[in-house]
Design goal:
The chain is an alpha/beta fold and about 300 residues long. The protein has two domains: about 80 residues, Winged helix-like DNA-binding domain superfamily/Winged helix DNA-binding domain (Arc Repressor Mutant, subunit A, Orthogonal Bundle); about 210 residues, D-Maltodextrin-Binding Protein, domain 2 (3-Layer(aba) Sandwich). About 40% of the residues lie in helices and about 25% in strands. It has nine helices and eleven strands. The strands form two sheets. Strands 3, 4, 5, 6, 7, 8, 9, 10 and 11 form a nine-stranded mixed sheet that branches. It has a two-stranded antiparallel sheet with strand order 1-2. The chain is rod-shaped.
């Protein structure tokens, strides 16, 4: 039994006439009659009472009708699901992100993606900064939002924007009175820096490279593993911190943020995935992330 047998049966059952059913199916009547006879022989029971003016369903035909409709509906559903999956519109996508993008980039991208891909089940995975590469390479996440992106030959990266680095400081600090802070003013300040274990791949590398470009070797008293930790250290009086601009959206009492007078360092925002991954779901999210506008400079500083 093939699906075409069921389609032919339903056409005859609806038309109550072989000739009219054949016309709807765009086939000749004799092949249609042969197909219905083959189906009846396979089932071992006649499906139609045949008369000079048309046909009616037998008891077997009445019982078979809803089952045939259900099978064809399931086949259509299976076809739609397969096509949606091939186009990245159906399935399960595990999306990774570093903690500080949970309140900036993630809410900017995810609602619109879910609206455009309602049949995709998105699972979210927070990825510690030190595990950015491993999470992708081990398959724990399918696609990830990182800042800055990892550098690994097995990880593909698509830049989707960049954030300025700004200065976080207490409101009573002498530099808080300035609308912009000149880099030279940091020469006598103690800075909270980031974990240097990732070298130039992480925020440490971004900040350190910019400071070197300004001819600065500032004092560093404390090391922070994350941006929130750095901000907490500033609140505790450990020093000042250079942070991504979106950090200003946290609006922590006891902190203000100031841009620099010189061209600021920028840290790339990227969507990342495994090299050679054929997943249509990953490709669909990457395309969505690249199509979005990212108004990071719209965060007001205070």
């Amino acid at each position: 039994m093939e699906l075409r047998h069921l389609r032919y049966f339903l056409a005859v059952a609806e038309a109550r006439h072989f000739g009219r059913a054949a016309a709807r199916l765009h086939i000749a009547q004799p092949p249609l009659s042969v197909q219905i006879r083959d189906l009846e022989e396979e089932l071992g029971a006649p499906l139609f009472h045949r008369g000079p003016r048309g046909v009616t369903l037998t008891d077997a035909g009445v019982a078979f009708l809803p089952q045939a409709e259900a099978v064809l509906a399931a086949a259509r559903q299976a076809t739609a699901v397969a096509r949606d999956a091939a186009a990245g519109r159906h399935g399960r996508l595990v999306l990774g992100f570093i903690p500080t993008l949970a309140y900036t980039l993630l809410p900017h991208l995810l609602p619109a993606y879910r609206q455009a891909h309602p049949r995709v089940a998105v699972s979210l995975r927070e990825v510690p900064v030190a595990e950015k590469e491993d999470a992708l390479l081990a398959g724990h996440v399918d696609v990830a939002l990182y800042r800055p992106p990892p550098r690994h030959p097995e990880i593909e990266v698509a830049a989707i924007g960049a954030e300025r680095m700004i200065l976080a400081l207490p409101p009573g600090h002498r530099l808080a009175r300035r609308r912009q802070v000149p880099a030279a003013a940091l020469a006598d300040e103690t800075l909270v820096m980031y974990t240097p274990s990732l070298g130039d791949r992480g925020l440490y590398g971004t900040v350190a490279a910019w400071l070197r470009a300004q001819g600065l070797q500032p004092r560093s008293a404390e090391i922070a593993g994350t941006i929130p930790t750095a901000l907490g250290m500033v609140l505790s009086g450990a020093g000042l911190a250079i942070v991504p601009e979106s950090s200003a959206s946290l609006r922590l009492p006891g902190l203000v943020f100031r841009p620099f007078a010189e061209p600021q360092a920028r840290v790339a925002l990227a969507v990342c995935w495994r090299h050679g991954d054929p997943s249509a779901l990953a490709a669909s999210f990457v395309a969505h992330a690249r199509s979005m506008q990212h108004p990071w400079a719209a965060v007001p500083l205070s």
